[in-house]
Each structure stands twice: as C-alpha cells, then as structure tokens.
Specification:
With about 80 residues, the protein is mainly beta. The protein has one domain (about 1-75). It contains one helix and four strands.
C-alpha cells in the first residue's frame, strides 16, 4: 500500500508506441536492417498529465540492439 501511495506522489510514466517504420541504414554491429519506433510517454501525478515526451528509438531487427534515441519535449498547457 505504501508503494502505491509513493508512486502517486512522485508520478507515473506511461509509454505507448505510436508508430513503427523502416529506417535507412544498417546496424554497425551485425549489418541488419534498422527500424524506427516512435514512443510517447506521459508523466502523470494523481491522474493529471504534467508533460508529454515523444521519443524516436532506433534498433536493429536482427540483433535487437538499441542504436540511438532522439528526444523531443512538449509541455501541456
């Protein structure tokens, strides 16, 4: 019960995958194809949204290695 109360006070981040697409280039480790995944994470305190963060994550389809993550921030008004 204390853990749930602590999570509500400090905030909870929810991540959802918004899109997945093939990216140009090849993995430097194994030469496999690269995929770009757009992820939106929203931080909430007591069910009120504080900020929304959009990320684009690149990973290899063959070795599953994470390659690069690009962040873009946007605040809710």
């Amino acid at each position: 019960m204390e853990k749930a109360a602590a999570a509500a006070c400090c905030g909870v981040a929810e991540e959802t995958v918004t899109a997945t697409q093939k990216a140009p280039g090849a993995c430097p480790r194994c030469g496999g194809a690269v995929v770009a995944t757009d992820v939106e994470s929203a931080r909430r305190i007591l069910c009120l949204p504080l900020c929304v963060k959009n990320k684009r994550k690149f990973s290899c389809t063959r070795c599953r290695r994470s390659l690069v993550t690009l962040d873009t921030h946007s605040a809710l008004s």
